[in-house]
Design brief:
- By secondary structure, this protein is an alpha/beta fold.
- It is 40% helix and 13% strand.
- The protein contains twelve helices and eight strands.
- The strands form two sheets. A five-stranded parallel sheet has the order 1-2-3-4-5. The protein has a three-stranded parallel sheet with strand order 6-7-8.
- Helix 6 runs parallel beside helix 8 and helix 11 packs across helix 12.
- The chain is globular.
- The chain starts with 6 loop residues before the first helix and ends in a 19-residue tail after the last helix.
Length: 264
Amino acid sequence: MPHPLPPAERLRAYASWCDAVEGNTTFYATPSRSTVESWAEQTAPDFRFVVKLPKTITHERRLANFDEDLRTFLHVMEPLGPRAHALWVQLPGSFGPADLGTLAGFLRRLPSAHRYAVEVRHRAFFEDARCVYDLERVLAGVGAEWVPFDTTMFFQGRPTSDAERDAWTKKPRVPRRSVALTDRPIVRYLGRDDTERTVEGWQFWVAKTAEWLREGRSPTIFIHTPDNSEALPLARRFHDEVREQLPSLAPLPEPEPIGPPTLF
């Protein structure tokens, strides 16, 4: 159905509900600079964008011969300024331990003006202690974060909806990881279309988020469900549950009405 807000207002409305957003659309195509300028205009300077690098760099060229695409991407993202919380390097499931040298060389060539976060999906990075150590060493060497995508609750039971069946074939099935390498941990959590099961599954992350905050870290947690129809209220509920453990955490702003979460 049509979105009730024009494109130039959708992100502004979203930002009244949450203070961070995943930039998934940039994976499929680098937007125009004017589009990114609009994103900046719609959000406060402390709003957080975690923006995914284009698939031409990460999946098609596998971190090789990327200079022109990266230069274009970084130029387009400049208007975000401090809102660019991290540039997100999501790697394909086939990118494994044998490719760590390539990843290390790629990360060392990135400009130091940005923070970087890497998501891997090869099971060896979750099950082989040596591979975990080697990847952590590569990331720590450049101050990059490891982004876990927690799908453990999602895969605890068979899918019960079309959206869950679709996600069942696409989402990574790897063990949960909860080690932060930097002061800015980033977590992606996938629940179920059943709200109570989603809430049950995120209790681990409520406690971990409160722990990180007590340590002086600044975590960013993204809440997903297969259909994402309740993603915004669920994100606020998660924040409220963290505040129950850490009352000093500031509340989110009062949201304005918003339609479906297809934002930008």
